[in-house]
Amino acid sequence: MDPLLDFTGKVAVITGAAQGFGKLLAEELAMRGAKLVISDINGGVQQVADDIASKGTDVIALTCDVSKNGDCKAMVDKAIETFGRVDIGVNNAGVAHEFMPLHEIDESVMDSQFAINVKGVQFGMRHQIKQMLTQGEGIILNVSSMAGLGGAARGSAYAMAKHAVIGLTKTGAVEYARSNIRINAICPFFTLTPMVTDFADETMQGKMSKGAPMGRLGEPKEIVAMMLMMLSPANTYMTGQCIAIDGGVSAA
Question: Which CDD domains does its entry note (predicted)?
Fold first, then answer.
């Protein structure tokens, strides 16, 4: 196996793994030798784990509400109890909200975005970092968004939360760089995961795709390919970076 993408023996914890990026990343890491603890608030995560386990990978599925610190701690604790360490933490779980003007966003929408998209990432990082400090190394990847790098018309609460994820990523990278813990974020443009398809029909997707120079939305496999490179054990000098995977949006 190419050493750039060899995860043999690495222990990865992934939130939001019942579908979308989390599910595909879990499958890809499993094929490359990783051991997994995957979670989701959606009970479908057990089926994902069963499918992966049937191919010979050590994998555990947990129900996890990332807005609860105790659930995030339990996930890391389970990885330590079962596999003895946590090499990779992927804080992927997140939610969107309906498109609406900023002046119509009420407090309940902001509370939901902050609880899941911000606190959920910080809770994950908190417990992952504690274990990685004990080990003397680790890799964390947070899932932000292009909405975290710029404005997002009619998505202000989501943008607010995803900007916060970038702040957490950069701050954590600076704090723990000398502890050999690398922390980065990936920032996708609209991608054909359930987070997009549940909110936007084909007509809306067509309008959204016009915002990208490539003229289309992203495919999940395209985003996960970059996630794998960012998590590569050979990628040892990259930290604090928030990488846009956007079909050229940020270049326009």
Answer: SDR_c
